[in-house]
Each structure stands twice: as C-alpha cells, then as structure tokens.
User: Fold this.
Amino acid sequence: MKKIENYIDGKYIAPIKNNWLDNYNPAKGEVYSQIPDSSSEDIELAYKAASNAFLSWSATSLQERSTILLKIAKLIKENLEELAIAEAIDNGKPLTLARSVDIPRASDNFQFFAHAITQFASEAHESSGFNAINFTLRHPIGVVGCISPWNLPLYLFTWKIAPALAAGNTVIAKPSEITPMTAYLLGEICTKAGLPKGVLNIVHGLGAKAGQAIVAHPQVKAISFTGGTVTGAHIAKIAAPLFKKLSLELGGKNPNLIFADCDYDRMLETTLKSSFSNQGQICLCGSRILVEKSIYERFKNDFIAKTKALKIGQPLDKDTNIGALVSKPHLEKVKRYIDDANAEGGKVLCGGEYVTIVDHKKGYYLQPTIIEVSDPRCRLVQEEIFGPVVTIMPFDNDEEALELANDVRYGLSCTIWTNNLNRSMKMAKHIDAGIVWVNTWMMRDLRTPFGGIKDSGVGREGGFEALRFFTEPKNVCIQY
Ligand code: NDP
Assistant:
C-alpha cells in the first residue's frame, strides 16, 4: 500500500509523530493509501522551512519566479495522464473530467499567474497643490497558508498556491485529507521545475488538527481558505485576533433561472452539466432550478429524461458521466436529504437511490436526483447538499424569480437563461451573487474576480485580485 509523505523543505518526510490516516478509494470503498496525520510539530517544521526560504524567494526577480512557475505548468501538462488517474481514483470523479478540466486547469493556474505577476504594476498619482507624488509598493506578505477542499483537489490547491508563489510569498499548504494524492505528486513536480526548497511546503492531515495549526500559527500572516461555511466561520474566529489577512471562499446554493425565452436546447444541455458535473460536488453547481411556469412541464419532462440517461459508473470507465461521491459519510449525508424530501414537502421525480456497480460493490454511488419542491424555505432549498441533487420549482414572473433566487443565506453564483437583454441585465444587477452567468455556466476567465457574498465568503481571488490579496500595499509619499 502506498504511503504518501509531507513535502517540507524540498523533501518528502514522514510526520514527526509517525501517525498515519487511511485514505479511501471512493469508487471501491476501500483503503488504498496512508497519509500523514500531521500535528502542530509538522506545521512548525514547515513554517521554519518556509520562513528560511522567504528572504531569498521574495528577492528573486519576477522573471525568474515566472520562469519556474511556467516550468511547473509545463510539467503538470506532461504528467497530465498520471495526475488525472490519481485524481479520479482519489476523488471518485470521472477520469474524462479530471483529464479535460481539473488537471489542465491546475496547469493553467500556474501559467496564468506566471504571466500575471509580470503585468502587476502599481498605481502612482500626484497630490496636487503639495508638490508630492504618491506611489504604492506591493510587498509579499511572508509565509502564507493555503487550505483547500476535496471536490476539485488539484484545481483549487493550485488556484491558491500559484498566485501566492508568484507574488513572492512562501507557502504552507494543506489539501483535504480526503483527496491528498495529486497535491502529493505536485511536490515532486515543483522540485523538478527548480522551485527552491522551502518555498512550497505541503502538509497532509486532518483539518481540525493540521489545518487549524496553520491558521493558529502566529507567524503565518495570511490564510486563503476554500471550504464549507461552518469551517470558514471557525477559521475567521481563530484568525481575527491574530490580525491575519483572510480570503474565504465558502459554500453556495446557486440559482439556475430559466426563462421561457431562452435558447431551450442549449439551456437543457448546460443545465444537465451545472446540476450533476462532478456528482454535483462543485460549489458553483446550479442546485436550485427555477423555471418560468409556461415551460415548466416541458422542462421537467425533458430534464428527467436526460438525467435518467446519464451513465453512472466507475470513474476510470470512459463512458461514465457520474462517478462515485467522495466519501461514505458524505454519501450518507446526501442520501439523508433525499430520504427527508417527503417530510419537507418535496417529491423525488427521479433518482434518489444508491447504485451498486459490478466489481465495485462497496463504492459510494448515488443516482442523480431531481426533487420538485413547493416550499422555498425548506431545507432542501436552503441548505447546501453538495451532491447530485437538485430542486426544481416554477415561478410566475421576473419579480418572483428574483425574490426566490435571493431567498437563501448564500450568494456565490447564479445562471440566467434568457434571450431578453433587458431582463438579463436587470437580473444580473439585482441578484445576490459574486458571479453571474448569462446563457452559460462555469465559463471561467482567470482574469475575473472570483468569490461570493453573504455566507459564501469574503474577499475575491482570481486575476489581480489574487495578487492583491497575496501582497501588502505600502503607500510612499515623496514631496519635492
Ligand atoms: P471543509 O470546510 O470541511 O474543508 C475544507 C478544507 O479545510 C479541508 O482541507 C479541511 O481539511 C480543512 N479544514 C477543516 N477544518 C479545519 C479547521 N478547523 N481549520 C483549518 N482547516 C480546516 O469543506 P469540504 O472539504 O467538505 O469542501 C466542501 C465545501 O467547500 C463545500 O461547502 C463547498 O461549497 C465549498 N467550496 C467552495 C468553493 C468556493 O470557491 N466558494 C469551491 C469549492 C468548494 P480536511 O478535509 O482534511 O478535514
């Protein structure tokens, strides 16, 4: 059985206390590797390595930092197949998805920020009447912490690490304990690319132990976190008295607003993806489908038929549309929501049952599920389920659509399907969300700000926003 180790100071090493955790293959429901159960001692070791490396890395020229990041991007591409297989086995996602989206995007993250940092200029202005000029210096912060979830493991891990490194920081990063494998492989890639030792340190282990030790470390000056809203609130409580910079990308319960005047076929295809890609385990999934009454029945029937045609299978099969959910506790949590649907006034229109796959009988498979709801305040509509489960309900007019769309504690993203420009603009302006897509879903341009409002988080990453987060601005005023 493969044992993976922490990557600290450019070397793979066992956790100091020699404690290990089991890592499961969700497609088979079996333990297939062991990972470090790191403690605060391991975080301290990583901190020392990162701190020692900071002076030299922050003084390294932009061009040299950029060149190293580009090499990492290239090596990720060269190792795409190995990484995609590792991701599919570790997470349960279809290999086709890991190969076409997750791993290419990890490479793109490094490539994008390698270029972005060379274009990241700061502002200057004259203070008129004072013969003075003001300009802004942007310094790297120091040692920063990056903590990422299990749903898009390498994609989100590198989304944080790449800008942090590009901006001249050194990093302690913790991937989710549930999906550590591609982060582990990234260490070797960084060494091969010539990233100096100690610049990136990858520590594995439990969130409440290893993750929390990063957040509580007094010298780790900024935390970029993506994960659940409850964890985000907990992290904020620990970080606030230490005056850390915080970026929190948290949960979502995103509306998918479908108007009768949309391009129906494109909407239907994309809605299938925005509902069930990655088994619905994407923070941007459109899990609340709201449909204009005049096309509600037509949509309902077509959507059910398309959903039933999705192929549930083991992640490495090339025909699989829906793989395994990430863990047994998560599978059971999602199933409980479905089982409670009746009591909540919901009606399961299709799916809702566990699935047994030949040769993978212990795997965590669940049918994609559509639940028709009538009460917009029920738990199915209000809480993030984070699985292959969507709710659908009709609306009468624009006002009602907007009211329903905004009637949750979250505000991450929204999709609007309409060919009416005025309507799309009105909706986009008034929707509570950090990201609004019109007639598309999850089209990500890395230059755009990414993040949510309300309980979906604080701060923005992406483009120059990420470089702003990972640098400390300093105003210099010179009178002449
Ligand atoms: P969690 O909040 O459980 O965990 C996220 C990460 O934080 C993991 O690495 C976890 O470690 C770690 N962690 C847990 N507790 C602590 C703690 N006390 N201190 C420090 N770190 C901790 O989320 P999930 O992994 O379950 O991910 C799913 C959630 O992520 C969903 O709510 C989803 O919406 C959200 N998400 C948000 C995105 C966004 O951009 N807004 C994008 C993707 C997902 P471990 O797993 O080892 O316990």
